[in-house]
Amino acid sequence: MSQTASNRATPGSRISVAPMMAWTTPAQRYFMRRITRSALLYTEMVTTGALIHGDTARFLAFNADEHPVALQLGGSDPATMAECARLAADAGFDEVNINVGCPSDRVQNGAFGACLMAEPERVADCVSAMRATVAIPVTVKTRIGIDDQDSYTFLRHFTACMMAAGADHLTVHARKAWLSGLSPKENRDIPPLDYPRVHRLKGEFADLPMSINGGFTDLDAAAAQLDHVDGVMIGREAYRNPYVMAAVDRRFFGAEAQPPTRAQIVADMRDFIGRHLAGGGALKDITRHMLGLYHGRPGGRGWRRVLSEQGHRSDADLSVLDRALARVEPTHALEDTAA
C-alpha cells in the first residue's frame, strides 16, 4: 500500500455540511444548494446491505443540482464496500465516504460506525478495495477515540492506517464516542471537544487532507480552524440555522455574486415543492428542512409555527408556504443579507 495520501480532492471539501441520519435527505440537500453552491454536501448514511439488497435507486437518487455531493456508506466488508463504491461512482456522486463515527447500537450490531475505530486494519482494507475500484475520492469520517481507547497514540495509529491505505481525506469529529452508556444524542454533546488533538494530528500527517467537525456554530470559528486543518464540516448549526451557510461561497470559495436573500431562497424552492406535491409527496417532507431559514429574524417564530402546524396536514399545499412567508416578508426582505 502507498505510504502517501492521494492528492484527489472533492470539490467543496474546504467547507462541508455533515451527513445526518433522517435529515440530509435529497430535499434538504436541494434546499441547501439554494443557499450555498459550493459547500460539499453528504447523504444520510446508507448501509451496504440496504444499498445492494434494498431500494438501490432510491438510495442513489439525487438532483443534478446537488453537486458536489458525497455518498456516505456504513459497512465493513471490503468487497461489499468496493461494490457500493462502484454504484456510487456510476450514479455520479463526487465522493464516497466511510462512516467510522456513528455510535448508535444499530451500527454497532452491524459492525460499522464508530466501533470500527477498534479495527483500523479492517477499515484500511475497505479503503484499499474501494480505491482500487473507483476513481472518485474515498474518504473516512471518524472520531478521536472510542470508550477507553482514546489516547493520541490510538488515534495516530488509526490515521496512519488510513493514510497508508490511500484515503483521500479524513474528517475527524473532535469528540470521542462512548459505545455504551451514552445515547447517540448524548455522544454529540457530552464528550468534550478536543480541537488541539485534531490540529496535532494534522501537523503530523501534513500530506493527508483533513477536516475537523464538532460544535461549529459560526463562520468566524470555521475560518479560524483553517489555520490548522484543510476543511471544516458544519453539522447541526447548518440545519438549525441554515442561512449561516449563505456567506460560505464568497468567504471561502471566492464567489463574486452576492448571497441569495431568504426570500429568494423560498422563491427558488417553489417549483421543487410544486413538483413534489404533484408527484404525491407531502409538503412537510420539504418544509421540515426549511423551519430554521428565518432563525433569529423578526417573524421567524411565526414562520416556523405556520410551517410546523399547517405543513403536516394531508391537504397542505403551497398556500401554507405563502402564509408562513407573510409572517416575515416583505417587511424584512431588504434587510436580508448574509453575515
UniProtKB/TrEMBL annotation:
The keyword tRNA processing applies. Pfam families: Dus (PF01207). The record marks N99, K185, R188, R301, R304 as: Interacts with tRNA. One of its GO terms (molecular function) is tRNA-dihydrouridine20 synthase activity. It catalyses: 5,6-dihydrouridine(20a) in tRNA + NADP(+) = uridine(20a) in tRNA + NADPH + H(+); 5,6-dihydrouridine(20) in tRNA + NAD(+) = uridine(20) in tRNA + NADH + H(+); 5,6-dihydrouridine(20a) in tRNA + NAD(+) = uridine(20a) in tRNA + NADH + H(+); 5,6-dihydrouridine(20) in tRNA + NADP(+) = uridine(20) in tRNA + NADPH + H(+). InterPro entries: Aldolase_TIM, DUS-like_FMN-bd, DUS_fam, DusA, tRNA_hU_synthase_CS. SUPFAM superfamilies: FMN-linked oxidoreductases. Its cofactor is FMN. Residues 17-322 form the DUS-like FMN-binding domain. Its EC number is 1.3.1.91. FMN binds at P19, M20, M21, Q72, K141, H173, N213, G214, G215, G235, R236. NCBIfam families: PRK11815.1, yjbN. The active site is at C102 (proton donor). Keywords: Flavoprotein, FMN, NADP, Oxidoreductase, RNA-binding, tRNA processing, tRNA-binding. It is an enzyme of class 1 (oxidoreductase). The keyword Nucleotide-binding does not apply. Belongs to the Dus family. DusA subfamily. Catalyzes the synthesis of 5,6-dihydrouridine (D), a modified base found in the D-loop of most tRNAs, via the reduction of the C5-C6 double bond in target uridines. Specifically modifies U20 and U20a in tRNAs. This is tRNA-dihydrouridine(20/20a) synthase.
